[in-house]
Specification:
Elements (H helix, E strand, L loop, with lengths): L1 H5 L1 H15 L33 H14 L4 H20 L6 H16 L13 H23 L28 H25 L6 H30 L22 H16 L22 H18 L5 H18 L2 H18 L11 H26 L27 H21 L3 E3 L22 H6 L6 E3 L8 H48 L3 H56 L4
Antiparallel strand pairs: 1-2
Helix pairs in contact: 2-3, 2-4, 6-7, 6-16, 7-8, 7-10, 7-12, 7-14, 8-9, 8-10, 8-16, 8-17, 10-12, 11-12, 12-14, 13-14, 16-17
Keywords: Acyltransferase, Membrane, Transferase, Transmembrane, Transmembrane helix
Pfam family, one: Acyl_transf_3
GO molecular function, one term: acyltransferase activity, transferring groups other than amino-acyl groups
Amino acid sequence: MFLSSAFPPVARWGGGLYSLVTAQPHDDDSEDELAFHDFENEKSASWWAPRWAWSRREWHRMSLSLRSQVQGSSWLMLVLFILASCSRRVAFCLPSFIPSLYNRFRLSKASSAAAAGGPTRDKPLSPTAYLDGLRGVAALTVYIFHFGYLWFPVLRNGYGSTDSDHLIWQLPVLRALHSGRASVTVFFVISGYVLSLRTLTIIYNGQTDKVLDALAGSVFRRPFRLYLPIVVSTGIAAVLTRFNNVFIPNIGGGEIPPEQPTSSQQFWHWLEVTIKTINPFRSLTGRQNLWGNDYNGHLWTIPFEFKGSLLVFFLLLAFSRSRRSISFVGVSIAAYWQMVSGDFDQTLFCAGLLLAELSLILPPAIFGLKLSPSGRRSAYILQHALTIALFITSLHFLSYPENHGPSSPGFRTISSLVPAFYDGNEERIQQFWISVGAITLVVALMYSPAVSRRRSDATDLDLELDEEQQPRPSAADLSSRNAPPQSEPLLQRLFTNAFAQYLGQISYSLYLWHGSINHIVGMRYLHPAWAAWEAGEAGAKGLAESGFEAAAAAVLDTIRREYIWKWAWGMVVNTFILFWVSDVFHRAVDMPAVRVTRTIQRWALARK
């Protein structure tokens, strides 16, 4: 589409040549050949979804023009045909936000037509779209964490914990923008929520006879959905290790995919590691026996994700026919039990399940319904104040630092307010409070009141679920539709904009690839920058020892500016390439994996 939109005659002439070469007349009633997203016809289209191909009818019309325009120039016709034939493949290999500029232009024209009374393409967001956006922002935060902390290790320390730790990015709340560990806890709460919402909706609708079918399908699809993209991504990493110096280790020798002596040994090593990663019976107790995949160390979270998913499905099945009060209490006991025993990751899945049920029991729009108009206004203002305060508090909890938390201002008191399992261990204390922050963050977003705003086009592509398994609107979501049109919860707006929704779409691919891209691209900027920094520091130290303090200070100031400039440039290049790879991988592997999973399920459940 990129070539087609940039050079329309090329695409049209090449298409016409295709008709001439094949000598097959096209039926005017034949369907357009579209791939993935068509802005006009695809239900899930959005401004970043490109139109990839031209219709056969248009190609046939252009072929008639081609006969009269380039007749006798066979070499030109061949070149045009090759360009047009490659345009779709070239466009597919581009990140979708590049060829989508054409669609965005069309969208702006459509908005102008709507303002003049013409038709509009606006579609409402999904009621749970903010969770997709939140997941995408969390995935981006994990990337910022792993990239930024390699350049600035001091960010791990709490603000004010030592005399030298007074950077603005170490401050509470701001730290949440680069706290990767906090983002992982957010992942787990969201997963518990979205994995349980559909089944809970079925239960609350009184259709308990459908619960078993819903859960059976969810359990069957879950390992395929999680592990198929992992098999492909780690397989690509294994192939790349066969080329010299593709992966560059961290400063001090960080872990990179191990290169084996032969290709055969590389394959068997990759297969062994993959089987170990997928093994559903591997013992997981808290984070005491973590193991990351040799080809992607960040995959340690996926076995926890799978274990938590099975826990959610088990609890839903166990309490599917019980009174809902018994179910709520039972899940709460399970969550508390795991929290005090140190398995806080599984507590987060239970918390997500509880929040999903809470959205059905206590919808946000229920507040103030039985009050007078003035009372409803007061309740509306109070709800805004409470949710904003809870949102800020959750960001404070999510900002608990990795190092020196108990001695950091703002965290000294709460560091002692933890269960016995966590007391005295900085890492465990951090995990406890960022888990609390993840839960309170989702609560704040759930109950944020609506404000007037025009909803933009977006899709609800959930990482955990395929399109047929997307969570149905809860009672909370349905009741919020009684609000005036063009209204949307205030805090949810942070995660329902186009960029956050795009991040939500590619979040799984971004998570799978950010570590590899950091080693392939980012380290090529970090190593020379770090060497220049150390050389400059050594030179400044020599000047200071010789009595040239002013010159030493000038050298330090210069190398500091150069280091930050190199970090900024490396960040831009590394991020662009990461988005490119994640975007293509999402369309080439992640989305087809959903369809493959559904196909496998239909085949497995086929009845004779």
